[in-house]
Amino acid sequence: MQLDRYDWHILQVLQDNGCISNQDLADRIGLSPSPCLRRVRLLQEAGFITGYRALLDAKKLGLSLMALIHISMDQHTPERFDTFEARIADIPEILECLLITGQSADYQLKVVVKDMDAYQELLLNRITRIPGVSGVHSSFVLRRVVDKTALPIATALTAVITSRA
């Protein structure tokens, strides 16, 4: 699917406000509601829009400790990685799991918990018990300096235009 200026604008507006009504979205991008809704549905079907979520305040929910955990694996086999990834996916405190390179670790996890006791329970009773985990290094987040969920649409659009030239 080739995106035109309306599609790019729809993606930008929806990133900023996923709850916007179709009428308001259509007004913002300069289309009538029916073609706007068709475009949104096409963007969803093509996989450009993968879902809609409410962003919650972790601290107000009592989840005040965020940690980044680097995990080293004992073996670099597809089976080890598959087992680890399946088990990690079932732990609700894990917000993000990234397979990484350039570090002494294989994975980086972003976790959020209530406090240090909850962190200790998560680490010692669940994460380190996953087969293959051989090393763990934790860092604790003092403050979120940049906290975005929106992708850089303008940068992506520039890259597409440049590649077509």
UniProtKB/TrEMBL annotation:
Keyword DNA-binding: yes
Annotated ranges, domain HTH asnC-type: 3-64
Record-level GO BP terms: regulation of DNA-templated transcription; response to amino acid
Coiled coil regions, renumbered to chain: none
Annotated signal peptide: none
CDD domains found in the cross-reference section: HTH_ARSR
Gene Ontology molecular function, alphabetical: sequence-specific DNA binding
GO-annotated cellular components: cytosol
Record key words, sorted: DNA-binding, Transcription, Transcription regulation
InterPro entries: ArsR-like_HTH (IPR011991), AsnC-type_HTH_dom (IPR000485), Dimeric_a/b-barrel (IPR011008), Tscrpt_reg_AsnC-like (IPR019888), Tscrpt_reg_AsnC/Lrp_C (IPR019887), Tscrpt_reg_HTH_AsnC-type_CS (IPR019885), WH-like_DNA-bd_sf (IPR036388), WH_DNA-bd_sf (IPR036390)
Domain of life: Bacteria
Name of the protein in question: Transcriptional regulator, AsnC family
Source organism per UniProt: Thiothrix caldifontis
